[in-house]
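lol so apparently i was supposed to do this last week
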Amino acid sequence: MNILAVAREFPTQESCIEHIERVKWQGKPRCPFCDSDRVARKVEQHYTHRWNCHNCLSTFRAMHGTIFARTKIPLQKWFAAIAILLNAKKSVSSYQLARDLDLTQPTAWYMSMRIRKAMQEDGAFLRGIVEADEAYLGGKPRKRNDRDNDTPAKRGTSSKKMAVLGAVERGGKVKATPTPRVTTKLINYFLRRNVDPRSVLITDYYQGYNEVRDWIRHARINHSKAYVDGDIHTNTIEGFWALVKRAIAGQHHHYTIEHAEMYIDEATYKYNTRKSDTPFADFMERACGVA
Ligand SMILES: [Zn+2]
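anyway here it is w/ zinc ion bound
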């Protein structure tokens, strides 16, 4: 995506508002309070983006209920921030975004967190061949066999490591979420919420996956012997972890456990939309609450 093209297509605040109106209402404006279509643009001497509802007598703007609601930041900066974030393979720090768009760092941080919130995944199940794995993000690399003794993500300790559970459909989408602990119970809970039980699940021999065979077909790769055994491997999910680790190492040195979910959401969203030819238009539908 070309960031200049986005800036050229929406050169003014008005053109940005009109675009939000188009994306959100698709030619059929409705009142966000009573859902009536008896609405009309407010008449004033100059251009206005306020609307009147003739049913419940509210006034509203298209930004209501979108990530652009209740902000005084020019919409062109919002659109540019979206384009920059979508374009960045390794994410963007709020400091960088502040410099790029002439914003204060807290404002850039607030915007990027709102944008990431709109990137949160839907609830659709992963199907077919699904690889599952966990990862520990941040801090020093850890030996693989050491994870039983791990106590990641403990606040107030020196550990800055965060445990994340993940699953990916081969050729499809990924789901990932930070977890307070890596336990059999939490692994099962995460997988049951995200994976169709008619799938085939592939994991390594970590004991946390011992109980998944109760509800799903399960194949395992013994990483002490080989990393690939025909179709039995976890290379896809490990590729995703590499992506997330690069983003956090490169940009978010000061990330906290509380916000880690947002960075995972961003990496997940980018992975899941990697084949789209229209990333800006796709994201705008989410930003306006359509998709
Ligand atoms: Zn109304």
